[in-house]
C-alpha cells in the first residue's frame, strides 16, 4: 500500500510504499485513524525512530526500510522519486519500556509506570502504556510492589537478563526451523537457507541470535547479555546479523 505524508510546506504530500500484514489493512478500514505513525525512541541507539501503532488491536510495529539507489515508484498517476520499500513488523513493546526503566535504575526506587515512561522528546511514548497485558510483561524485567491498589515498579537487571536469554533461545529455534546458515564461514550478510545449516555450531547460533536481539537493547546491556550467555570473544570471521551489516554498509556509503 502507498501512504501519503504531509510535508507541511504546502506541497503535495510525499508518498511512501509499505508492505503491511493483511490484518492491518482491515484495521485501517474499521477506524478512521486505525493506524498511526509515531516517533518513539529507538531502544538501541536512544535516537528517534518511526513506529506504526495499530489503534484497533493495540499493537506496535517497527518500520524497516529497504533502500536501493536509482529506484522510484509509480503510484497511480504520479512518480515518487524516493524508491524505498518500507516494512511494518511487530515488535515487543517491552524493549521500548525497558529503555525508560533503565534510565531510572540509578534512582533505585519503586515508581508508578506513568512516572517512568515520560519523554519530552518523544511524547507519544505514553501510547505504550495503553498496550494490553502490559502488567504481565513488566514482570519479566521489574520488581513490583502494590500500595493502596496502585502498582510500583523498579528495574531488575537479573530478571531482564533471564528474559533476554529466553528471547535468544526463541530466536535460535526460529533460525534452526527455517534452516538459516549462521556459521562463521558465511562471509556475506545475506540469509543462506539450505542443508548447510545442519553443520553450524551451537555457539554460532547463540552469537547470531544475540546480535539480532542486541538491535533492541543498549550496548551496555548487550555486553551484559553476552557475558550472561558465556559467549567468548568473537573472531573476525564471524558475520554480523543482516540488520547490523546493512547499517554498517549505510555508514560506509555516506
Protein architecture, described:
Helices cover 33% and strands 22% of the residues. The protein has helices at residues 22-30, 94-103, 113-116, 134-138, 157-177, 202-213, 219-228, 242-253, and strands at 2-5, 14-19, 35-41, 48-54, 59-66, 73-75, 78-80, 85-90, 142-147, 150-155. It has a six-stranded mixed beta sheet. Strands 6-7 form a two-stranded antiparallel sheet. Strands 9-10 form a two-stranded antiparallel sheet. β9 (142-147) and β10 (150-155) form a beta hairpin. The protein starts with a strand and ends with a helix.
Radius of gyration from the alpha-carbon trace, in angstroms: 20 Å
What's the order of the H and E elements?
Answer: EEHEEEEEEHHHEEHHHH
Instruction: Quote the average pLDDT.
Output: 79
| Beta-strand share of residues | 15-25%
Describe the global form.
Answer: globular
N/C terminus separation = 29 Å
| Total beta strands | 10
Binned, the helix content reads: 25-40%
Main beta-sheet annotation: 6 strands, mixed
What is the tally of helical segments? 8
Largest beta sheet: strand ordering: 1-2-8-5-4-3
List keywords for this structure.
single chain, alpha+beta, six-stranded mixed beta sheet, 10 strands
Brief overview, please?
This protein has helices spanning 22-30, 94-103, 113-116, 134-138, 157-177, 202-213, 219-228, 242-253; strands at residues 2-5, 14-19, 35-41, 48-54, 59-66, 73-75, 78-80, 85-90, 142-147, 150-155. It has 254 residues and is α+β, with helices and mostly antiparallel strands.
Amino acid at each position: 500500500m502507498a501512504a501519503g505524508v504531509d510535508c507541511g510546506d504546502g506541497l503535495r504530500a510525499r508518498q511512501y510504499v509499505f508492505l503491511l500484514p493483511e490484518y492491518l489493512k482491515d484495521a485501517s478500514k474499521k477506524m478512521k485513524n486505525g493506524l498511526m505513525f509515531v516517533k518513539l525512541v529507538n531502544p538501541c541507539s536512544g535516537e528517534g525512530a518511526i513506529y506504526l501503532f495499530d489503534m484497533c488491536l493495540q499493537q506496535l510495529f517497527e518500520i524497516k526500510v529497504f533502500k536501493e539507489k536509482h529506484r522510484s515508484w509509480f503510484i497511480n498517476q504520479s512518480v515518487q522519486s524516493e524508491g524505498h520499500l518500507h516494512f511494518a513488523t511487530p515488535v515487543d513493546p517491552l524493549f521500548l519500556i525497558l529503555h525508560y526503566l533503565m534510565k531510572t535504575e540509578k534512582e533505585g526506587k519503586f515508581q508508578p509506570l506513568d512516572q517512568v515512561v515520560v519523554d519530552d522528546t518523544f511524547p507519544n511514548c505514553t501510547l505504550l502504556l495503553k498496550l494490553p497485558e502490559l502488567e504481565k510483561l513488566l514482570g519479566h524485567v521489574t520488581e513490583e510492589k502494590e500500595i493502596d491498589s496502585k502498582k510500583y515498579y523498579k528495574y531488575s537487571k537479573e530478571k531482564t537478563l533471564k528474559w533476554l536469554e529466553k528471547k535468544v533461545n526463541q530466536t535460535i529455534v526460529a533460525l534452526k526451523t527455517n534452516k538459516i546458515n549462521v556459521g562463521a564461514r558465511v562471509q556475506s550478510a545475506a540469509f543462506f537457507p539450505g542443508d548447510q545449516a545442519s553443520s553450524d555450531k551451537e555457539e554460532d547460533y547463540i552469537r547470531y541470535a544475540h546480535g539480532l536481539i542486541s538491535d533492541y537493547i543498549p550496548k551496555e546491556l548487550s555486553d551484559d547479555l553476552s557475558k550472561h550467555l558465556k559467549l567468548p570473544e568473537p573472531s573476525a570471521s564471524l558475520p554480523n546479523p543482516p540488520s547490523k551489516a546493512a547499517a554498517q554498509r549505510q555508514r560506509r556509503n555516506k
